[in-house]
């Protein structure tokens, strides 16, 4: 393949821009905010699970408290009815009176036991409510941090995208001045060689693979016409000659 020396030099400009585009893409992918947001989201998910569990516990204890209070009220009402019957004097049988008094005493004990249950449930509910309040605050704090990190990430990404657009435009302009066959070869080699398709020959060394050319290869390059597109024998990249090639 033949190409004007100026076209080959411009190929190095395209290569430099492609390297810059790769660097920008890598920078965008590895913004520290990505890892920060991932960590915060993981913490947020964990806290949300804990909050849901605490809210469920609070809801369960609320129902449990309502049921316990209803049980106390039922015993209290029954005891009140029995006491009213006792106080009415309608029961004259000693045996019935003794039975009723015994039931009232039993109900009083039952009421006391149930009221203890209510107190125990209330304490558990209060603890659950405190846990809900604490976790809600922590979740809201994390949401704020996630929002801040997301904003910083988006700002940084936008700045990188702006530079990518500028570099891409510059590449399009320069690439448009290079012959199609040379550019196609370069793009093919760049895909095969880790993003570097063309390298300058600098002080008898290929800048692509960093290998110094053997004397026979160097002589072949020296003898090649200026418009001949030469390739590195080691890495097969396009080897661009410059005044600093050491030929």
UniProtKB/TrEMBL annotation:
> Which Gene3D superfamilies did the record assign?
1.10.287.1490
Annotated C4-type zinc ribbon domain ranges read 205-239
Record-annotated CT398-like coiled coil hairpin domain positions: 14-194
Keyword field = Coiled coil
Q: Which residue ranges are recorded for the region named Disordered? A: 57-93
Instruction: Write down the InterPro entries for this protein, in alphabetical order.
Output: CT398_CC_hairpin, Oxidative_Scav/Glycosyltrans, Zf-RING_7
Q: Which Pfam families match?
A: CT398_CC, Zn_ribbon_9
**Coiled coil regions in record:** 97-159
Q: Spans of biased composition, class Basic and acidic residues? A: 60-87
Entry protein name: C4-type zinc ribbon domain-containing protein
Natural source organism: Streptomyces coffeae
């Amino acid at each position: 393949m033949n190409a004007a020396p100026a076209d080959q030099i411009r190929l190095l400009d395209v290569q430099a821009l492609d390297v810059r585009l790769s660097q920008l893409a890598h920078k965008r992918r590895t913004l520290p905010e990505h890892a920060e947001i991932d960590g915060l989201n993981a913490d947020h998910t964990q806290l949300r699970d804990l909050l849901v569990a605490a809210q469920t516990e609070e809801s369960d204890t609320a129902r449990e408290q309502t049921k316990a209070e209803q049980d106390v009220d039922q015993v209290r009402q029954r005891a009140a009815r029995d006491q009213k019957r006792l106080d009415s004097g309608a029961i004259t049988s000693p045996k019935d009176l003794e039975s009723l008094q015994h039931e009232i005493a039993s109900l009083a004990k039952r009421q006391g036991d149930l009221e203890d249950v209510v107190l125990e449930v209330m304490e558990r509910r209060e603890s659950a409510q405190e846990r809900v309040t604490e976790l809600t605050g922590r979740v809201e704090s994390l949401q704020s941090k996630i929002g801040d990190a997301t904003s910083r990430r988006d700002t940084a990404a936008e700045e990188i995208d702006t530079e990518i657009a500028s570099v891409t435009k510059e590449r399009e302009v320069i690439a448009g001045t290079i012959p199609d066959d040379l550019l196609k070869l370069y793009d093919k080699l760049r895909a095969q060689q880790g993003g570097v398709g063309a390298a300058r020959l600098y002080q008898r060394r290929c800048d692509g693979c960093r290998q110094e050319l053997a004397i026979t290869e160097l002589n072949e390059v020296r003898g090649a016409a200026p418009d001949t597109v030469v390739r590195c024998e080691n890495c097969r990249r396009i080897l661009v000659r410059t005044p600093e090639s050491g030929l």
